[in-house]
Structure formats: structure tokens, C-alpha cells
Amino acid sequence: MSYLDDLRPGCFIAPESGSEHSFKFNDLERQAGKIIAGKEVLDSDESTAQDQGNIALVFPMEIYFTGENYHEAADAFFDALGEHYTQDQSGLLQHPRWGDIDVFPVKWTQSEKFVDGSQVAHFSVEFRKVFPTGYPVTDALTESAAVAQVNEMQSASSGMTDGLKTTNPSTLANLKGKLKNSISAVVGSLKAIAELSESIIADFEAVQSAINDTIDEVGGSIVDVIASIQYLIRLPGRIITDTMDKINGYRDMIDGLINGIDDPNETVTENQINNAILLEILGGMATAALAEAAVYTEYETRPDGSAAIGIILDGYEAFIDAMESAAVTGAIGQTYTGDHNYLSLLQDIIARITGMLLNKSFDLKAERRKVLTAPSDPITLCAELYGAVDNDTLDFFCRTNGLTGDQFVEIPAGVEVVSYG
Question: CB neighbours of 174 closer than 8 A, spacing ≥ 6?
């Protein structure tokens, strides 16, 4: 008996209609991974790794339908993928290899070729595994609790500054240099976002100016500067936007802070400790603020919601990796490997907000793709794909497909168009 004997026909069962769709396939694939946080062990050359759970399990599939009436089966499958999904009412993928799996489709593409009369419809579908809700929770409760934890993180960090070394003039100069690098990273990544609101940008620039003045003062308070930078980091995050630019800006800021603070070539222990503490306070707050900014973003499509989750997890991983790199080990009083409570709060924030976004994504429009077999135009396609040709629908279609030039009049055959529903 070989593994081929264990394979079975593939089938997808839609959540609302209950319709069943048997399909053919060639290759099978599944994607998974771990979220890992590492810690350096004091007074040793060892480190430990903490398993913080799995990333979402994804099943990319290449599916096809054949036969004289292949088009009817393909179109019915296309419609089934576009039904409404929730965490507790998901689709069922009867996978040829890995059993029955509760899933929702993130995006899919249908393509057909007619030149050789092959009578085949091909689909590229990304299914994501769904876990049922463990306990009832409202979005409002999740959001308010997550924001409260970010506030708690900011308060907790005030005690962490006690470990900074500021008595040596050279060490203090190095610390001020890192603070200036941090200001540059924050302003460079977030100022364009702050400019979306007149009141926010006015506050943003006032705080930035006060920080610069305080850093340059001989007796300027390092603690006040750090608190002000944290305030600046969070300030534009609550501007409600409907684009991914804000989230991408916050993600870029994390890299900017890491590059501006961490220095693998630093050899002075006091500077190393200051760098590690500053990276944890500001880099950790930036990571939490990234997740917080995602809460105050309005998503149009399911892929946008999924992308936001991926960006948050990527930013968190970058921060944890940087903390591992910046950790200082050595004699008692000359070590710093991070504040456990601060990092635990951050981990909870990331888990809470990504879980909330996953739940919200079920109510967003799923992505559907279609390769045109004949020339068409935006109005005809809007009527076909959305059942409407009003200005808002036309604008959404043109914008999400990136139409340019003559494509506003005619879209040639062979072009792949995307719709959401």
C-alpha cells in the first residue's frame, strides 16, 4: 500500500449554501511557521527560545475543472468562494491529503484558455485554516483592552530608564546621539501620516521641537525626552485611515529605530547597556504602536486585513531579533537582557490585536481574480462583477485594478482583473 492509496478526491463545501464542489488537482502544498522569542541566559554562553505559537496555516492550491460543462462547475465554485464567512461558519476543505479542514479563502484567480479547445478552468486559491472562537468577545472590548495595555506599557517603561548610564560624559553623549537618531526615525516615518490631520501635525511638530531643545540642553532630562518620543510615536496612530500607508509607515519606523540605536560594533559596556534599554523602550513602544495603528485603520478588503496581520507579526519578529542582538551579558551589574513584564505586555498586545483583526477579516470583501477571454471595459465589468455601475463602484474597480490610459475605455483580452465581494 503506497501513499497514493491514502489520497482522496478534493472537495470544497461552502458555508452559506452548503454546496459541494469536487475538483481536480496536480500539486499539494501547505505553509506554516513558528513565532519565536529568544532570551540570553545570564552569565553563560547559552540562550533559550520561547515558542509563542504558530503563524496561520495556509493551503495554496492549484485546482482545475474539466469536461464538456466545465464552465458551469467552475463558475459555481467561483461563486461559492465569494460567500460570506465567519470564524464559526467557515468553509470545509476536504483536502486530498490532509483531511477535513475549516478554512476561508483569502484570494483566488480563475483562468481559462480557448486556443487549444482544452475545456479546462484553472483556479489558484489560497485557503487559510480557521480555528473556532474560544470565547465570546466584542471588537470594542478587544480594542479598548489592547489600547489600555499599550498605555500600561508606556507607564511601565518609566521605571526602566533607571538603568541608563548617564554619569560619564562620553556615555551621555552617545545616549543623546541615539536619541537624536530615534527622533529622525520617528519623524521620517510618521510625519506624512501626522499631516493628514491639522491638529495632529501641529502637536507633532511642537513635541518634536521641544524634544530637540531638551536634548541640546546641558542639563536636559533624558527621561523626559524618552517619554516625549514615546508620545510622538503613538500620536498619529489614531488617525482613522482607509489605506495601508499608515501601517507600512509604522513598520518602517521599527527598522529605523533598530538601525539608529543598535550597534553590533559597540565595545563600551555602558554604551551597550544604554543601547539595549533604549531599543527595548522605544522599539517595543513602536511595535505596540504599529498594532495600535492597525486598530484605527479601516480595511476595504480581506487581503488588506490579512496583510496588516502579517506586517504586525513581521515588525514584532524584527524587534525581538534586535533585542536578542542588543542583549548585554557579563558580570553582575553589567548585563541587560530585557524587562520581562514589558515584553510580556507587548506579546499580549500583539496576540490580542492580530486575533481581533483576523476576526474582523471575515466580514471584509474577499479577493477574486479573472483573466479576460475577450476585450471588455470598466462599466461592463462593474455590471458583471458587482451588479452596479455607480460612481463609487467604478472608482473602486478602477483604483483596485490600477487602470491607466486606454484601459479606462477598453481592457484587452488576457488581462487579469480583480474584484471583491
Answer: 268, 271, 274
Give pLDDT, residue 335: 73
Interatomic CA distance for residues 201 and 190, integer angstroms: 10
Q: Which residues of the chain register pLDDT less than 50?
A: 1, 37, 39-44, 52, 134-141, 219
User: Residue 405: what pLDDT?
Assistant: 86
What is the predicted pLDDT for the residue at 330? Answer: 57
Q: Residue 323 has which C-alpha cell?
A: 533585542
* 170 grid coordinates: 562620553
CB 202 within 8 A of CB 144: no
d(CA 277, CA 314): 21
pLDDT of 31 reads 84
CA dist list (Å): 370 to 122, 373, 418, 420 = 10, 9, 6, 11
Determine the 3-state secondary structure of 36 from DSSP. strand
Helix axes 222-234, 139-160, angle to 10 degrees: 160
Task: Give the pLDDT confidence score for residue 3 in this predicted structure.
Answer: 53
Reading the block at residue 251, the C-alpha cell is: 513598520
Cβ–Cβ < 8 Å for 394, 382: yes
Q: How many CB atoms lie within 10 A of CB 363?
A: 13
Residue 218 has, within 13 A of its CA and on its CB side, a CA count of 0
Tell me, letter by letter, the H, E, C secondary structure of 301-335: EHHHHHHHHHHHHHHHHHHHHHHHHHCECCCCCCC
Instruction: Show the 3-state SS of 352-379.
Output: HHHHHHHHHHCCCECEEEEECCCCECHH
367-371 vs 99-112, strand pairing mode: parallel
Closest C-alpha to 232, from 289, 161, 270: 289
